[in-house]
Specification:
single chain; mainly alpha
Length: 193
């Protein structure tokens, strides 16, 4: 099943409208959607190695704009929509402590949330709820999201067919590594808050 899903994603990644889907997923992931854009970025870079840098830029811009939407949810709708989204990700009980941590560690929480597979929407919504400085929020988001997506795209561009072959031969291992990285992001932010 995992192989069929991978093959299907690779075939979709080569289509003409795929960058729009990448932008939509990157935007939504920063505010409400559970799947990180890497799930599309990686196969799209593998399918069209010549577009790696453009795809990383699309991910970065859409993610930062989506992060601003998440910030607005936290700033204006924390008691309703924001609280619900945070609780879906299992942080409902800790949101007060998470917000309090922002007074001391806000920038570092943004850095960890922006660079790791931790659900970035939790960080963007918490940033808005804590009324974190929006300029620092935007600059940190551009830096961390850009670093993450350009690193992924750069590695895929640099290693090209070699990395594609590695991923395809060890798809289950790569999927497990991604899952462990996602859990590690949750653990890191949980212990920071």
């Amino acid at each position: 099943m995992l192989q069929r899903l991978y093959d299907w994603t690779i075939s979709l990644a080569a289509r003409r409208h795929a960058p729009w889907a990448l932008a939509a997923v990157s935007f939504a992931e920063s505010s409400v959607f559970p799947i990180p854009p890497d799930a599309l970025l990686v196969p799209m870079c593998l399918a069209r190695r010549d577009r790696c840098w453009l795809l990383a830029l699309i991910c970065t811009v859409a993610s930062v704009v989506g992060g601003l939407f998440g910030y607005a949810i936290g700033f204006f709708l924390m008691e309703t929509v924001g609280a619900w989204i945070i609780s879906v990700y299992g942080f409902g009980d800790e949101i007060a402590a998470f917000q309090a941590s922002y007074q001391e560690y806000g920038l570092w929480m943004l850095v960890i949330g922006g660079l790791t597979p931790f659900p970035y929407k939790v960080v963007t919504i918490a940033s808005g709820a804590a009324h974190f400085d929006i300029l620092i929020f935007v600059l940190a988001s551009v830096a961390t999201r850009g670093a993450r997506f350009f690193l992924v795209a750069g590695l895929l561009w640099w290693f090209g067919p070699t990395i594609r072959d590695f991923i395809e031969r060890r798809l289950k291992l790569v999927a497990w590594a991604f899952l462990l990285a996602l859990i590690g992001g949750f653990v890191a932010v949980t212990y920071l808050a």
